[in-house]
Every structure is written in C-alpha cells, then in structure tokens.
Amino acid sequence: ETGVTQTPRHLVMGMTNKKSLKCEQHLGHNAMYWYKQSAKKPLELMFVYSLEERVENNSVPSRFSPECPNSSHLFLHLHTLQPEDSALYLCASSQDWGGVNSGANVLTFGAGSRLTVL
Amino acid sequence: RKEVEQDPGPFNVPEGATVAFNCTYSNSASQSFFWYRQDCRKEPKLLMSVYSSGNEDGRFTAQLNRASQYISLLIRDSKLSDSATYLCVVNMGAGNTDKLIFGTGTRLQVFP
C-alpha cells in the first residue's frame, strides 16, 4: 500500500450510532490531519496531529473525537452526529507541521470517507 | 472578508485556450502558497507550489503578487483532462506553526 488510505469509503449512520473513520499513511510523514469538505464550502480543518500530539483543534463539536495511536494511523470517532455533519471527510498527511522548510507542509490526501447521517 | 477568496466559476473554455485564475488572501504575513487540483469526487492533489519569483511547470504558470495579495494560475493550451476544480491554498501560520487555509475552488471545464 502506498500513500494515504481511508476506510470506509462510504458510511451511512443514524444519529444515535457510533462509528469510526480510519486513516493510514505509508509515507513516513510526521503530521496527520482531518478535514471536512461540504458542498460549496472550502475545506475545513478539524484536527492536526504532529508526532502523535494534537496541535490543532478547530472548535470542532465533541461528537467528533480524534485518536492518533502512532504516526501512521489516525482515527475519527463519531457519535450522536447530526444530519448537517454529512460531508466528505478527508484525511491528509505531510512530512512535518510547523517546520521552517515550507515544502514539508505539502499535503497528501486520502480518497476520503463520504458520510451520510440520517 | 474571506481569508482566501476565489471565483467559483465555472470557467468554460475550448481546448487549446489559455485561462487564468486569481486568488486573493487577507493575511499579508502569509508565507507560502499552493495550487491544488481536485477532480470530481476525488481528493485534492498538489498541482504546484507558488514561489515569490513565480514558477512554471509545463503549461502551468503560477505567480505571486504580495503587494496586491493575490496569486494566479495560468494554464496554456488547455486539454480536456485539465477539467477540474483548482483550489488555492495559503499558509497563514505564524512562527513555527502551519495554518493552511483553502479557498472554495475555481471550477474549470474544457470542451472539445
């Protein structure tokens, strides 16, 4: 496997369900991200992990809970979601976060997990 | 004012045409800039970084104008395969932090 892989690719869940999105990167990168992409809106940064430490949490509701057990894996745990949470959730990784080398923050995205909340 | 602003388009151009997109940003201290390309129902992929001196990659040329706070992307000799949404990304982080802000994207449709 190469690049950034996300599972599942599609997920339909009810508002009372609990599910998780999984992301794995095979690039040896030190930073991983969760983004939300809704129709006609720019990508919204949700969380950033650098060297397995959360460095950014952009006022995301607590019904979204990230977990980064190691530098290659990132999860997004979902519970009691709302219909407006339906969107494409993109995982990304970069060589580094916040380094002096500007090229090190180039993002490589996974194919995304399309979430529908009923 | 939006942090990163793009004309959503769509820009409909014939094959072989030259097309240019602009993107304006609000933070004059922004340090790095990128263009990403996103095909329909696919993930964004880096097209090119934008350097202060401007840079060219084949048919694609990116420019940065710090005084007016905008970056541009010029595509020459458009191909059908260039049809996609082009996302402007600006790093508004300060110090040793990154804060990559995405525009909503400009949709390009190249027709035969």
Residue ranges of chain B: pLDDT <50 for 5 or more in a row? none
pLDDT < 50 stretches of chain A: none
Helix content of chain B: under 10%
Report the major sheet of chain A: 7 strands, mixed
Oligomer: heterodimer
Alpha carbon gyration radius of chain B: 14 Å
Span between N and C termini of chain A? 33 Å
Question: Pairing-aware structural class of the strands and helices of chain A?
Answer: mainly beta
Main traits of this protein?
heterodimer, A: 118 residues, mainly beta, seven-stranded mixed sheet, 0% helix, B: 112 residues, six-stranded mixed sheet, 11 strands, 54% strand, globular
Notes on the protein architecture:
- The complex is a heterodimer of chains A (118) and B (112).
- Chain A is mainly β and 118 residues long.
- Chain A is 0% helix and 54% strand.
- Chain A has no helices and eleven strands.
- Chain A has strands at 4-7, 10-13, 18-25, 31-37, 44-50, 53-57, 64-70, 73-79, 87-94, 108-109, 113-117.
- In chain A, the strands form two sheets. In chain A, strands 2, 4, 5, 6, 9, 10 and 11 form a seven-stranded mixed β-sheet that branches.
- In chain A, strand 5 (44-50) and strand 6 form a beta hairpin.
- Chain B is mainly beta and 112 residues long.
- In chain B, 0% of the residues lie in helices and 54% in strands.
- Chain B contains no helices and eleven strands.
- In chain B, the strands form two sheets. In chain B, strands 2, 4, 5, 9, 10 and 11 form a six-stranded mixed β-sheet that branches.
- The termini of chain B are far apart.
- Chains A and B meet through strand 10 of A and strand 4, strand 5 and strand 10 of B.
